[in-house]
Amino acid sequence: MSYAPPPGLPVVDAMTPPVLVLSGPLTRDEVSGPCDALRALMDGGGGGGSGRVVVCDVAGLGPAGLAAVNLLARLQLTAHRSGGRIRLRDPSPALCALLDLVGLRFEMEGQPEQREPPLGVEEAVEPGDPAV
């Protein structure tokens, strides 16, 4: 038994990730509140499981410092333990430089994902190489 598909494009529910707004100024001990809020967002909405993303709006954190680095590192760890990841929105150039300096890599909103090139694919061919 078969049926005709409905006319037009299929209905797709757009998925927008939840947003956690972080504000400052921060002290070194202010990590449990944002981590609890992130955990609630990870556990709360649809999607669940791997691939779950929460956007962290860091525009209001204030001046970049080690308290911000500590908070973001703990948020990243909390997200990883919950089976997801975080994406930063509106980080200042100073915060990006500080995160790079300490070796923390975050996905930034608006930047394309960087992936490994497929195996077995050459990116450039030198003149004179015989075709295989």
What does this structure look like?
The protein has 132 residues and is of the alpha/beta class. It has a 4-stranded parallel β-sheet, with helices on one face. α2 links the parallel β2 and β3. α1 packs parallel to α2. The protein is flat, with a radius of gyration of 21 Å. The mean pLDDT is 79.
Quick recap:
By secondary structure, the protein is an alpha/beta fold. It contains three helices and four strands; from the N terminus they run βαβαβαβ. A four-stranded parallel beta sheet has the order 1-2-3-4, covered by helices on one side.
**Element-level helix/strand string:** EHEHEHE
| Average of the residue pLDDT scores | 79
Strand order of the largest sheet: 1-2-3-4
Percent helix, as a range, is 25-40%
Count the strands?
Answer: 4
Give a quick account of the main beta sheet: strands, pairing sense, barrel closure. Answer: 4 strands, parallel
Distance between the termini: 49 Å
Number of helices: 3
Structural class call reads: alpha/beta
Based on CA inertia axes, which overall geometry fits? flat
What Rg, in angstroms, do the CA atoms define?
21 Å
- Poorly predicted runs are none
Oligomer: single chain
User: How much strand content do the residues show?
Assistant: 15-25%
